[in-house]
Specification:
Rossmann fold; 4 domains; six-stranded parallel sheet; 17 strands; binds adenosine-5'-diphosphate; binds zinc ion
């Protein structure tokens, strides 16, 4: 009998607590509901359990720790690797009416002391801190006395040597936790999904029986495309002309490419800036801000740009070169469309990209402190990753499906929003070409790499061919009528489907497999899906974007009047951003403005129903936006 009463009470309390965190979400961030995974993570943290969230970029990781941070008794510390990221998040929080600060090397000694002083007085609810600060005397002095409820490890993959961006200073986190008088709840977040890295994070951070939540890696609002244009620049320029006034990032593999592309775009009159590790700190900072504050529309950059860039209205990410692996690609491409609106991710492939990446792998200086065996392992792993990346560029299957499978998820094999799904394919019998390739591999005793085999079949007259006497090979020139790109396609197909394999070492020798013989003997046909006609760049547009799969709103349905209103609201946002000295998307996201155009709020109550408008922001700007909507109606 008593037990029952308690149970009821429990449930009621739980329900109250639940509605409490939805209320916090609404009040501070202006959102009505949690996205997939968020609520589970919030609840786990609030229940005092160590928590580990693995979510793709743009899924909304920050909310998962910011909401509980606001509800917990004490202070939340957030360890974050990048200054730009901290600044952005803290600005966002301050805009939402949350007292937050960051402690990193961008502050002068005086500012740092002052901030720590305020922290000691308990002025901040959330404090972002650089990992290398954690075990400094000044910080420890504060931390030992403070009431720390939670420690958040953002970009937690930085703790793993197997990760993309290993940072030795992340190892200080554990040291720091061990020094604390009371162990706070630990939560960790990352967008990197591979199992090795996941296990590493749990082990190294010593998470205690953590609740692990992984949300799907699919980003339905992103359109994926691969193109192999003869003239990359012309093709990209064409794309940019079709997307005026949009924010976008162009990733290049090397600084040289960045400089080159930047220069040409500038000469062609685009609003463009650049970023790579070779620029001075100051220039990098200015350029990054120009992009974030939308003073420059296009950012041309190496992969040094982007981790933690929270600009939510990036409408396209073009890869001018193929990156080194799928992890990098998905992460970089994923910087498009964080606001949930349609965005495009286009990869421009050329054979040279493979060569350049191979060179980077063979000359990777980062691995020098590793012992011989580990270094070899890392190199083999990198080569394998590069191969999988290359296959992405050659597959005729759904690109999204390919990526999701790479990360261990099962998608459907048709997404309707990638260049492959939108291309008409036909099944072509490529057995003759396949036999030629396999025959050439066999007759040269499985001693050569892909390029030499293809050159032989095509009858190239190179020094290499002559020095290996491949011009005497029975298959020399045998497939000279088949275009080179087709030979390469079939070669890749044969590797992807196990008719041939490539050795893991740096020589990448093509070898036969148990499946090779059947093709050579004519017992097995090789069928391949090939495009009926090459789609042109210009056709591959957002229009194909499947709206129904995205829970949200889209500008595409706008009337002309709404379109005008949107521009007005945008102008107001820019004005306010200027006054507040924050990037426009910190004031309100594009998505919020789009929603505002649809709701056309007349009163405060209406305005608070707009996604992204919380109480605090309403108090600050609500009236001005209401006025703008009113005027936009006439
Ligand atoms: P991540 O860190 O996972 O890349 P962010 O935390 O930057 O993603 O969130 C991406 C965007 O999604 C931000 O603009 C954020 O305000 C928005 N967002 C997060 N959670 C929600 C939600 N529950 N409803 C609507 N928008 C959300
Ligand atoms: Zn698809």
């Amino acid at each position: 009998m008593y037990g029952n009463i308690w149970k009821k009470r429990d449930r009621k309390e739980i329900k109250q607590a639940m509605s409490e965190h939805v209320r916090v979400l609404k009040q501070y961030f202006g959102y009505d509901s949690f996205r997939e995974g968020q609520e589970e993570l919030v609840e786990s943290i609030l229940a005092g359990q160590d928590t580990f969230g693995i979510m793709p970029t743009g899924a909304g990781k920050s909310i998962c720790f910011q909401v509980p941070a606001l509800m917990m008794q004490g202070i939340t510390l957030v360890v974050s690797p990048l200054i730009s990221l901290m600044k952005d998040q803290v600005e966002g929080l301050n805009q939402a009416g949350v007292h937050a600060a960051y402690l990193n090397s961008s502050l002068t000694m005086g500012q740092y002391r002052k901030a720590l002083g305020y922290a000691k007085e308990g002025r901040y609810k959330i404090i972002y801190v650089a990992p290398e600060r954690l075990v400094t005397e000044a910080f420890l002095d504060f931390a030992m006395q403070a009431d720390i409820s939670m420690l958040v490890v953002d970009e937690a993959h930085c703790v793993s040597q197997w990760g993309q961006d290993f940072r030795p200073s992340y190892l200080k986190i554990v040291e720091f936790i061990e020094k604390l008088p009371v162990r706070p709840v630990i939560s960790a977040f990352t967008a990197t999904a591979t199992k090795e890295v996941r296990d590493d994070i749990i082990d190294i951070l010593l998470l205690r029986n953590p609740k692990v939540v992984t949300t799907g890696f699919d980003r339905p609002n992103l359109y994926f495309a691969v193109q192999s244009p003869k003239d990359k620049y012309a093709s990209m320029k064409n794309f940019l002309e079709l997307h005026p006034n949009q924010s976008g990032i162009i990733y290049c593999l090397t600084r040289k490419y960045v400089e080159e592309v930047y220069k040409r775009l500038k000469e062609d009159g685009f609003s463009v800036t650049k970023y790579h590790a070779g620029l001075l700190d100051e220039e990098r900072k200015v350029n990054q801000e120009d992009f974030i504050y939308s003073r420059a529309g296009i950012m041309v950059a190496t992969n040094a740009f982007g981790m933690g860039i929270d600009k939510s209205d990036v409408r396209f990410v073009i890869h001018y070169n193929m990156p080194k692996n799928m992890e990098s690609y998905y992460q970089e491409a994923g910087r498009a469309g964080r606001d949930g609106e349609a965005a495009e991710c286009i990869l421009l492939y050329a054979g040279q990209d493979v060569v350049t990446n191979q060179f980077f792998i063979d000359n990777n200086k980062d691995n020098q402190e590793l012992d011989e065996i580990s270094r070899k392992l890392v190199m083999e792993r990198d080569r394998e990753r590069l191969r999988k990346m290359t296959f992405y560029c050659f597959t005729n299957e759904c690109l999204r499906d390919y990526a999701l499978r790479y990360f261990g998820e099962y998608g459907s094999n048709y997404c309707g929003n990638c260049s492959n799904c939108l291309t008409q394919f036909e099944n072509v019998d490529v057995t003759e070409t396949a036999r030629g390739i396999i025959g050439c591999v066999e007759s040269s005793n499985q001693r050569f790499g892909t390029n030499l085999i293809i050159d032989t079949l095509h009858g190239a007259r190179t020094v290499k061919i002559r020095s290996y006497r491949m011009d005497k090979n029975p298959y020399y020139g045998e497939l000279s009528k088949v275009p080179l790109y087709r030979l390469r396609q079939v070669m890749n197909h044969l590797q992807l489907y196990g008719y041939l394999r490539v050795t893991d070492d740096q020589y990448a020798i093509v070898k036969l497999t148990e499946k090779s013989g059947a093709v050579l003997d004519g017992k097995e046909k090789v069928m391949m899906k090939l495009a009926k006609e090459q789609v042109h760049q210009a056709k591959a547009k957002t229009k194909h974007y499947r709206k129904e799969v995205v829970a949200g709103f889209s500008k595409e349905e706008f009337t002309e009047q709404e379109e005008r209103l949107f521009e007005k609201l945008r102008a107001l946002r820019t004005e306010i951003a200027g006054e507040e000295k924050v990037p426009p998307y910190i004031v309100f996201s594009d998505k919020t403005l789009v929603h505002m155009c649809m709701v056309k709020p007349e009163t405060k109550e209406d305005m608070l129903t707009v996604s992204g408008v919380g109480e605090f922001k309403y108090e600050k700007y609500g009236e001005r936006f209401l006025k703008c909507v009113r005027e936009g109606q006439v």
